[in-house]
Design a protein that fits this description.
Layout lengths: L1 E8 L3 E7 L13 H9 L16 H4 L5 H16 L7 E4 L9 E7 L3 H19 L8 H17 L6 H11 L1
Antiparallel strand pairs: 1-2, 2-4, 3-4
Helix pairs in contact: 1-4, 3-4, 3-5, 4-5
This protein binds zinc ion.
C-alpha cells in the first residue's frame, strides 16, 4: 500500500489517494495477519466506532475489509494518542469504474496539520511492516512520543488562520 497523493481539504480534512501494490490484494481477507497484529499493537482500536454496511463492530469488520480502511482508522488513532484531540472522523471510498483497480480515496479529519502528516507517514510505515510481518523496527510508544513532540513543535510556528487559507492567499498574490 502506498500513499500517492495528499490533498488538504477544507480546514480540517485531508484526502489521500492510496494505491495497493497488488490491486488484487486489497482486503484483509487476503492478509488476515494485518488486523490481527494491528489490534495487538493498538488495543484501543477496538473502541473505534465504525459505520459499515453490516453494522459490525470495528474489530469484526476488520476480518474482511479494505486495508486502506484500516489505514484510515490507524491515522485517527495515532493522532488521538499523540495529542488529545476531539472526535475525528474518516471515510474510505473507491470507484473502480472510474479509477484503476486498487486505488482508494481516504478522507481523514485533523486538528493539527503537521501532526496529521506525521501520522500518515507513521501509519503507512506500520501497515507495511505488518504486511511484511517485520515488527522489529516498530516501537509504538516511541512513534507516538515523537508525533506528540512534532505536534507541540508545530504549535510554535502556527500562523493565524489555516495553512490552506494562507496558501490560497499566496496563490492569489502570485
Ligand atoms: Zn470504519
Amino acid at each position: 500500500m502506498k500513499v500517492v497523493e495528499i490533498l488538504f481539504y477544507d480546514s480540517n480534512r485531508v484526502k489521500l489517494v492510496v494505491e495497493m501494490l497488488d490491486p488484487d490484494c486489497y482486503s484483509t481477507e487476503h492478509a488476515p495477519h494485518i488486523p490481527k497484529l494491528l489490534f495487538k499493537l493498538f488495543p484501543h482500536l477496538v473502541r473505534h466506532r465504525c459505520e459499515n454496511d453490516n453494522g459490525y463492530s470495528f474489530r469484526r469488520e476488520c476480518q474482511c475489509t479494505e486495508i486502506p480502511h484500516l489505514f484510515e482508522h490507524l491515522i485517527i488513532e495515532l493522532q488521538g494518542q499523540a495529542l488529545k484531540t476531539g472526535t475525528l472522523k474518516g471515510e474510505t471510498q473507491w470507484n473502480w469504474r472510474v479509477d484503476p483497480k486498487g486505488r482508494f480515496h481516504v478522507y481523514v479529519e485533523y486538528e493539527n496539520e503537521i501532526l496529521v502528516l506525521g501520522a500518515i507517514r507513521v501509519a503507512e510505515k506500520i501497515i507495511r511492516a505488518l504486511d511484511n510481518r517485520k515488527l522489529d523496527g516498530i516501537n509504538v510508544e516511541d512513534e507516538v512520543r515523537q508525533l506528540g513532540e512534532l505536534a507541540k513543535l508545530s504549535e510554535r510556528y502556527k500562523i493565524p488562520g489555516s495553512a490552506v487559507a494562507e496558501a490560497q492567499l499566496n496563490a492569489g498574490v502570485v
